[in-house]
Amino acid sequence: MKKNRQKHSQLTFFLLFSLLLPTMLLSHSIIPKPQHFQARQGTFTLTQQTNYTSNTSYANPAISYLKNHLKRNAGYTLTQNKKAEILFVYNPKKVKKSEGYHLNIQKKKILIEARDKAGFFYAVVSLMQMMDAEIWRENNKKSKQKKWHIPACDIQDYPRYQWRGLMLDSSRNFFSVSYVKKFVDRMAQHKLNRFHWHLTDDEGWRIEINHYPLLTKVGASRGPGTKLPFSTYPAMRGPKNKRQSGYYSQKEIREIVTYAKARSIEVLPEIDLPGHAKAAIVSYPKLLQDPNDKSSYRSVQKVHNNTINPAGESTYVFLDTVIKEVSTLFPFGYIHLGGDEVPKGAWQKSPAVTNLMKRKGFKTKKEIEGYFFSRLDRILSKHHKKMIVWQEVAKNRASVRRDTTYMAWKSPKAGYAMAQQRKSTILAPVHYLYFDQQYVRSKKEPGHTWSTPVSTQKTYSFKPKASRYIKGVEACLWSETLLNTHIADYLAWPRTFALSEVAWTEQKQRKWSDFQKRKKVGLKRLKMQGIHYRGR
Ligand code: ACM
User: Fold this and answer.
1) Among the atoms of ligand 1, which is closest to the Cα of residue 391?
2) pTM of the model
3) Does any ligand 1 atom lie closer than 6 A to the CB of residue 121?
4) Do 109 and 234 sit in the same domain of this protein?
5) Which of 204, 231, 290, 325 has the most CB atoms at less than 10 Å from its CB?
6) Is the link from the previous residue into 494 a cis peptide, with omega within 30 of 0?
7) SS3 label, residue 454
8) Total domain count for the chain?
């Protein structure tokens, strides 16, 4: 009998221990990991009787976000009441860093303090990540959860980098407005704040420009009966022998910008120039080509003659108008103008370019590229915008404004070298942050193979060096192989978890083993949202 009891208590201990162990090890499942987290005794329980109060309009987008999720998944409307349990308080004395927040959860009260919209938004996102994953559910399931338990804790949090970016290539394969919104929402959920939107390339011009309607009438279709190439892969929504079209109207662009803004995300449009411009060239050959140019060349992606003429005044008239319209659509202070991979052989047999070189005393192609970007920077300045370009432009000796920002994609080293020259730099190194690449080398895996594979652990292992000239980090989801949204999601997740933590969390707080545990819960949240992902 005594032996039995002993056995029984051993079993109870074992059961209790194995039940508690995962929660003991995992104090929270917030991604990206906050800078300071302290667990406290007890639990706050959110019910249909819970109210909020706020003393600042900065908290409004965060409150709307929380309200929408509760409405959808708990079936009730969180309302404002003086005697509330959730308090949104503007407190720039307590929260010193922009985008930072203080989240204090007690048994009977939740205090949220911040100094700006982003801070309040991120506090709410952290709060929701501490609730059951059901809170993120997207479909309207019948059973509504009535109570939401949130462990008491104190969080002081802020981002390591001001630039936490993710790029989506809508040119090589076109994504619907609703997919782009989902993409942006997932970014916000992980505290990423720069949506870099690659809107033009050889395979398609995807942004409506009122003054130049052919850009989308001609330049937004590829396949049979068009002048545009497929990349090495077929297009989304069909085989190579089918015509593919798609672009965003100005109304749709405004809608996406507003949607992003409500989630503390700025949208950075990219118009890729002077290479990667086949779609623009076939739409307006008279404006963008030297008619006597006999050059014949291919880009690294094997696209024939895809580079616009830097020596014709009509090029700059065209770009001035395009940039003017782009500037009014996107309120963000920067426009990305490409500058990558100008093909060997471009302009070699162009009399107009030869003439320009003579006039200006240029000896090399790089100097012509420099001239091109100097002129573009002047156009941007006229429209009150600053320039972002790929790293190639840093070598062009372009005379551009000091606050031009360079994206280093070939290696971290290239980025550090630019930062050392006091150039404002964003790190997007291919070996860590190109999410179009396969996770592991295998015929069964989707994704590109032109670089090395990028596993989630590889992304997580990126340790950017500290420098005041490094604005932040960004990952790129190029879309040649993104033949459907299933593949797009698979390639983005869970690598984007790792990106968010590289971008947000101080190096000393980051640990792969700890990240892996939170990643499991993160994937559960994505599942609720119907997002496809890779398990490991
Ligand atoms: C790039 O990957 N061409 C920026």
Assistant:
1) 4
2) 0.94
3) no
4) no
5) 204
6) yes
7) coil
8) 2
